[in-house]
Amino acid sequence: MIEMPVPDRRIIAKQGDLAAALRRIVPAEQVIHTAEELKAYECDGLNAYRQPPLLVVLPDTTDQVSRIVKLCAAEGVPIVARGSGTSLAGGSLPTADAVVLGLSRMKDVVDVDYGNRTIRVQTGITNLAVTGEVQPDGFFYAPDPSSQLACAIGGNIAMNSGGAHCLKYGVTTNNLLGVTMVMADGEVVEFGGAHLDAGGYDFLSLICGSEGQLGICTEATLKILPIAEGARPMLFGFDTNEVAGEAVAAIIRAGLSPVALEFMDKPAITVSENFAKAGYPLDVEALLIVEVEGSDAEIDEQLTRIENVVTPFGPSTVKRSGNDIESAKIWAGRKAAFGAIGQLADYICLDGCVPLSQLPDVLKQTAELAEKYGLKVANVFHAGDGNLHPLIMYEANDPDSARKAEELGADLLRLCVEKDGCLTGEHGVGIEKRELMLTQFNERELRQQMAIKDVFDPEWMLNPAKVFPLSLSTPHVEDRRAA
Amino acid sequence: MTDAPDTDAPDTEEGVAAIVREAASSVAMPLEITGGGTRLGLGRPVQAARTLSLAALDGVTLYEPGELTLVAQAGMTVKALGDLLDGENQQLTFEPADHQIGRAHV
Q1: Of A39-48, A83-92, B26-35, which range is least confident?
Q2: Smallest Cα–Cα separation from A62: which of A212, A157, A160, A190?
Q3: What is the ipTM of this complex?
Q4: Domain containing B49: what range?
Q5: In chain B, is it the N or the C terminus that has fewer CB atoms within a 10 Å radius of its CB?
Q6: Are A447 and A435 part of one and the same domain?
Q7: Cβ A253–B69 below 8 Å, yes or no?
Q8: pTM (2 d.p.)
Q9: Quick check: A255 contacting B, CB < 8 Å?
Q10: Domains held by chain A: number
Q11: CB A255 to CB B89 under 8 A?
Q12: Dist. CA A173–CA A222, nearest whole Å
């Protein structure tokens, strides 16, 4: 079980006064205070952990955010910023003594600039709505987390989100050019802008992925790219995970740039095929789906080169899509995988990264650890960048099974770190991996990171109890606030 | 170009750390930090008691062509790095001007 700090009763006692003060900043209906309505904000995508906040406030403008932050700073009330609440790591889990500052009303497109290929948005806009805004003119926003229909750009910036396309186009940090950020004291500061590089320190890189610890981003300037003419995948089946892993490394090494390079292991193949009837071979141990983009001729050329690179590894299945119907069929099983597994069992979706060369060994040890815990694990993941998403199947209503699943999850993330990888590829740390940060960093390194938060948020009022192990942060926060 | 009389060129990270630590604990020991020195002719010379040259930190500590990943030390020349990458038909995506070929450092 993940512990949360003891809430401050003195803050909870001020709920009524605080709500009244917030209603002087935003219209009354944009301050949520009843127990029933607060329940909607009690958790995010990590829904095993729930805690309704003290209040929720839903501002419309950067100026309102600034005034809310100033009010909370003066009253000593912590703030949890929240985009759409889809975090799988508990990145926007409230505490009982915190105000949730929800960005869901801040969805305006401020400016679209095709000449410079940028778009300026308020950060409550959903990821897919950004693409929706520019798609009619042939453009798109590249990072595409699976939750893109719902997740907000603010949360994407906080977690430096990725997605299936990030192998070719990079993650959020590679597509973010500037932000307006409300600092912990309410000051409004601009970082970056509609240009590739700015003078001075690269604060934007520090902010992207800082999980709401340093400030609240209210507007963002994003890169937009022209949509490719077309895309088609190829499917390869292999007799062992090891050889499939080697083929992945060979494709990358050859300098080919697939837009997606997805890996499915045997448990994932079986479940998906039973569900989606995509025509996947059932006598293989691993499948790779490799998709490339471009004009028809370009796609054919690239797929031929990929086939030439993979053939020496002796794939037992090779299927090349020749048209949209065949493409849809190849993707059907992959896209149905999570839903198919969800029909069989409850599952935890982990997120860790390893160097490509370690993939085969990590997959082997994952299977061994799963067997030790008596749980099933399926692997469906973005192989091109070594970003693993083991799905641990368990029984949510059985506390013993839930505990084992959590322990296995922690073991698997430790394995990623042992193999020179890291705890998170695209989901972030949140509360989920907070205590595991000590396996990735030593205490001195974590204290350095905490010192950076001290500069931005001296009283530690922003997004409490996330990212840093409580054993380090709790005494530190007490010291800071006492000083 | 001749080096200032007291130039240190450590070949380990520990060596660099020791010099920086010594400078930080001294009252008046600003450090000039140099790589290949290809832009030293621009602007005023740095007024520093000592020069810390990174030129001897010129190795590659990791190269995994299959992962498009390379770790180079700060004193490696852009030329040497380019030659290494050529062997695998790879390149850097950034391209700093190396106007005194072989002198510009990472």
Answers
A1: B26-35
A2: A190
A3: 0.81
A4: 7-53
A5: N
A6: no
A7: no
A8: 0.92
A9: yes
A10: 5
A11: yes
A12: 10
